[in-house]
Structure formats: C-alpha cells, structure tokens
Amino acid sequence: MPDPTLPATHPAAGILQRPYLWVTIGTCALVFLAAFESLAVTTIMPLVSRELDGAGLYALAFAGPLATGVIGMVAAGNWSDRRGPTAPLYSSVGLFVLGLLIAGTSASMPMLVSGRLVQGLGGGALTVALYVLVARIYPGVLHPKIFAAFSAAWVIPSLVGPFAAGIVAQVFSWHWVFLGVVGLVIPALLMIAPVLRGMAPQPAEAAKVPWAVGRLAWAALAAVAVLALNLSAEVRIPGLPAATALLAVAAVVLALLAVRPLVPRGTLLSRRGLPSVILARGLASAAFFGAEVYLPYLLIEQYEFSPTFAGLTLTGGALSWAGASAVQGRLGARLSHRTAVTAGALMVLGAVLLALATTALNWPAAVAIGGWIFAGGGMGLLYPRLSVMTLALSTKDNEGFNSSAMSIADSLGGALALATTGIVFAAFTTTAASFSGVFALAAVLAAAAAVVAPRVTTRRP
C-alpha cells in the first residue's frame, strides 16, 4: 500500500504541478547551487591563490574535489540502496555546507584545499542521492522532464556564475562566494524535507543490501589515481624524459582497474544495455569537457580574443544544451533513447572536428564557435536520456549503485580527459600543434562515444 506521506503518482501531472512542485524546485535549486559553486570557484581561484600565497596548491584545489567526489558517490549509492535516499541526502548537504564554511573562512591555502576536499565529498554524494530521490518520487513518464530540468539547472550557472562570482569578489570578498551559497542551500533542502520525512526505510531493505566496504576502497584508489594523473604533468625527472608519460599511463591503468568494481559488469567492454549506457556517459563527458576548457584558450592565444569575450563564446553551447534538453523532454517516447544518444554523440564529434580543423587549417574562429553550439545541443540530447535509461534499467535494490556508477563515469571521464589533454598540450613545441593534439584526442573520445551509443539498447528478439 503506498505511503500516504509521499506524493501520489500522477502521470498526467507535470513536474511543476502538484504534488511535485516543491520537490522539483528544491532539487533543481540544489543542482543549480552545486553547479554555480563549481563555476564560480574557477573565476575567483587566481585571486584566492594570490592572496593566500598558494600557487603550489592551485591545481589540487580543482582536482581534489573531483577525486573525493568519487568516494562520496559510491558511499551515497550504497547507503541509498540500504536505507533509501533520505539520510544520504541530508548528510551530503551537510558535508557540502561544511566544506563551504571551511573554504569561506580560510586564512591559508591548505585550509581552503581542505574545505574543497570536504565540499567535493558532499557534492559527489549529493548527485547520487538526488538521482535516487527522483527514482522514488517521480513516475517514469516524468523522468525525461525532471532530468531536462536538472540539465538546465546545471547549464544556466555557466551563463551567470563566473560574472556573478567576479562581482561578489570585487565588491565584497572572495570569501562570500563560498559563504553566500550556504544561505541558499538550506532553503532548497527545506523544500524537499516534507517528502524526505515520508520516506522511512524498511528494515528488510537494509538487510538485502550489505555495506560495500570493498567498493569504497576501490573508490579511494580511483581517487588517488585521478590525483596522480593530474599531478603527473608536473613531474620532471632529469635523464628520464619519458617519466611523465609512464606515470600518466600507470595512473590511467590504475584508474580503470579501480573503476571496474564501481560500475556494472561489462561496462569497459561496452556490453549492450546498462553497461553501454554508463560507458557512453563517461566517453561523452570526456570528449566534451576535454575540448571545452581549451576552446577559450585557443581563441585567446591564436585569435587574440579578450578573456571575457573568449569565455562568452561558450554561451551558445550552454544555451543549446538547455534547449536540446527541453526539446527531448517534450518529445518523450516519440524520440527513441537510441536515436537521441546516437545523434547527440555525433553532434559532439562534429563540433570537436570543427575545432580541430579550425586549429590545424587556421580557419576563422567563427567556425569553432558556431560548431560548439552543436556540441552543447548534442549533450542536451544524450545526457538526460542516459539518466532516464539508467533508472529505467535499475531496480529498487540497485538504484543507488547504478546512479553512483553514472556519476562516477561523469567525474572520472572528465577528470581523466582533462589530465590527459593537459599532458598532450605540454608535449608539443608549437601552440598550434598543442591545440591540434588536444582536439584530436577529444575527437577520438567522441568517436568512441558514437560507436558505443547504438549499444545502449538491447537487440529485439
């Protein structure tokens, strides 16, 4: 018998209609604030590093949260499978807020990095807990719409986050970029609290799913590998010029070995169904974010754009991501999952190839800028659909595991790509060759995503 404290299932209702209105606003607000904080830190970190004399820990301030986030994802997934999403969600928000408070009150760079590590742990767990909450609250017919809303909530901060963070840091202090978010997270959580109170865990639910201590250990090892790969570019051993490459390869191998127990069996082999859904998500993230961070850099170095204008060129991609997410959500079953994912991967591949051609052939900058609109549109098509498929292919006993696997694919895919493109960029002697190498690697990853995309659905008998 359904729990009367939970929203009744109303397939005809929209995500902004009763009984889902406040849950939708609260969950989207949490996604928005996590995204805003991630982008805002990028803007203020040079100022923070200069004020706290922390140039040596600059890279770790970004790599650290990504690494600890993997541990948070696994822990929240296992906890959610055992006891439901209520306790993991409260705990993840608590850790996220604690990290913000530590970073916002930092008087030294080590203290700020410590806050960022705690913040990453909470942020990774928060993502997984929200996905499980969606699975428990919303009927399947509304999943495309709520995940489209999540995509829009993640993309919108890319339009306002960096500018707003710069204004806050200039008018007040960079500390308030962290502390100000705390005051917004609490109201967002309170909007969800009534639903969370009604999701009491069943004793039998916890008995069926044991604590996965081994998976947590593998997650920690994967986090160490990500950090090692990020730091390997700084290693220079006299007499051993290949040491950087060897360390990077070892870190990648270690990360792949560590991630195997954290994702569905057969993911690295691209088995049909859920394993390929998770792999496609990781490859798409790697291709898109591995290329995106270098596009403004390309425009500044080779086309003499101002930093502000170069950053604004990504706005088109952000808007097309949000727009495509909304379109696929409205189309629902009229656009098949396989078609949406395959078309999205091909759009990302085409955009990366245009960036590569722009660099290698010295084409006008407008080609790469216009192409990135297709990249954003491709991500808007495939990202929400892969989220929907992950929940559709899950049971109540493994929603947490599968949701954490998807988030881990996002995190590790992007982290490994960014670290590897950094090594590739440093390996060439000319700027044009460096950018060409980066976009070529991203194109390979996008092509792999396009190959895997048709395998996200099983063959019909």
From TrEMBL:
It comes from the Bacteria. Residues 23-461 form the Major facilitator superfamily (MFS) profile domain. One of its GO terms (molecular function) is transmembrane transporter activity. PROSITE patterns: MFS. The chain crosses the membrane at residues 20-45, 57-77, 89-111, 117-134, 146-168, 174-196, 216-233, 239-258, 278-297, 309-327, 339-357, 363-383, 404-428, 434-453. InterPro entries: MFS (IPR011701), MFS_dom (IPR020846), MFS_trans_sf (IPR036259). Gene3D superfamilies: MFS general substrate transporter like domains. GO terms for cellular component: plasma membrane. It is a multi-pass membrane protein. It is found in: Cell membrane. Signal peptide: none annotated. The keyword Transit peptide does not apply. Keywords: Membrane, Transmembrane, Transmembrane helix. The keyword Transmembrane helix applies. Coiled coil: none annotated. PANTHER family: MAJOR FACILITATOR SUPERFAMILY (PTHR23501), MULTIDRUG-EFFLUX TRANSPORTER RV1634-RELATED (PTHR23501:SF154). This is MFS transporter.
